[in-house]
Amino acid sequence: MSSQELTLESVKVRCVCVPLKRPVVSKVGVYREWLLILIDLRAVEGLGNGASLRTAT
Question: In terms of pLDDT, which residue wins out, 43 or 3?
């Protein structure tokens, strides 16, 4: 597999609060929604990819 250098054109970061079907219950409290950080990367060469991060509260 060969590797190709890419030139980063843009990065878009968004935070979204996602409601949970069933709440998460812990000693700290009850979580009815979860915060996600969405990251979109776009290269000059036209390639794009995305990822998400879950936060720990």
Answer: 43
